[in-house]
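Same chain as my last thread, 123 residues:
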Amino acid sequence: MVWPGPELRVRMGLHLGETEERGGDYFGPTVDTCARIESAGHGGQILVSGAVRAVVDRDELSELGSHRLRDVPDDIHLFQVGDGSFPPLRGLVGVRDTLPTRRDQCDGEDDGGADQPVAGPGE
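reply #2:
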């Protein structure tokens, strides 16, 4: 069967890791990371993480470098399947967020002002 409409250019992201299966769906950080890898790509582009690269034929992969992806705590090394030409990946390059990059930054260690009173509503 041939699709009767316009050409559809899908993007794919692949990552490898442990997941939790519940009711036929999969959950966990691996699934979240996979979704962020996919969202970094463009139509027609297939992206894989370094974890996937370690277990597949490397001849088909083009290195794209390390990228910071939303809600992924560490930079992730990405590769493209094939040699197609695409715009730069979408990610957090140059984007500043207000969240700490390390969990220990939220636990009060050396926060430089945790002893300061916090004003409540209307104060």
